[in-house]
Model the fold of this input.
Amino acid sequence: MIPKRPINRDVEATPQPQPPREPKSQAPKLLVGLVALALVFIVVAIVFASGSDEEGGGEVTAAAPAPSDGSSDEAPSPQVAEALAFPAFATNNTTRIGGPDPVANAAGVALAVFPSTSEAQRPAAVTLVGEEDWAGAIAASVLTAPPLRAPVLFSAPDEMPEDSEEALTALAPQGDKATGGASLFAIGAVALPDGAGEVTRVDSGDPAATAAQLATLRERLFGKPPAHFLIATSSKSDYAMPAAAWAARSGDPVLYTDAKKLPTATSAVLKAHPKVPVFVLGPDSVIPKQVVKEIAKVSKSVNRVAGKDAAATAVALARYGDGRFGWNVNDPGHGFVLARSDSPASAPAAAALSASGTWGPLLLTEAPDRLPAAVRSYFLDVKPGYTTDPTRAFYNHVWVVGDQEAIDVVQQAEVNELAELTKIGGEE
Done:
């Protein structure tokens, strides 16, 4: 059943006069109305993921033994699961942001992270990006990092989607010192609401130029150079997607290259910061060696993070650790975000989930009903286990981004099982 009231229906807000329109979807009512339930899972996940350092008493942080590989084959079909009232919104180890598209999912994520029932729960600013500008949106995810914490919403040149409009009204950003007084960051030509307040604009068009402008804006607002740069491809969106979560988590800017040479805009940013380490996201087939050599001419430290395909590259970034760069998630007790690899805007839509709550990397799946082998293997490696007391163990939690057309209940059930805490050893 779709709830009829959003979480913050009783919160006073200045109404914005709106012309009558036909509802575009039920997504905003569904997403906003379910935020209250999502918050329960967030709190539980945060508590569980923290474990205990004081009363561990023989508990383990190593991964549990893997279940048999045939578990997915035994899962019910989506039709059977629906008939049995499978709790698709949330299981005991997963929570779904179940909008039909990235526009709706971005609205749901923003209100899950910022419930906005009080002034303290609202973000100071929100980032608006064009619905089709996935490259600009991924680069803009750096503005989601503390201290700005500006979630991404999507707009369009002529009219803001209803999902985004409703979320923005609830979020009611007012700007503060950290945002330079801006309540909105507008990336490209996007429609703005009436009474938008102070707006900081960034041009959009060429991905490299947009990302370079965002890196400059980030440096001005943060008041210091970045600790690292992350170079992604502007030609294969699925390989660039994991960069959004890391940018939101770390504040490291995302810069772009194409398949043939390093763009002038990207090179200029690197030349201005020759001592800042650079990490290249993707294999040689996506970002060739000659591009890495070009980077090495201006940057003193260049490293590659890659897997054989997009899903494996996301896992590689989740595992990677080099000083302060990389998630270094190689043990139980973490959050994760799962999205479809053919929906690049889902990465920035979900970025705020990687910079709050159970902070965790973005992983990619390629089909509705089954995890890629690399992702399943990774989940098995970090599967949590306990020896005597499950309340003192470490827990995993996975955000599932998308409706059942994107990631169906069979795959969600598989993810839930892989994240489940398992007893290790026999009875005492």
Summary: The chain has one domain: 27-423. The chain has 15 helices and 14 strands.
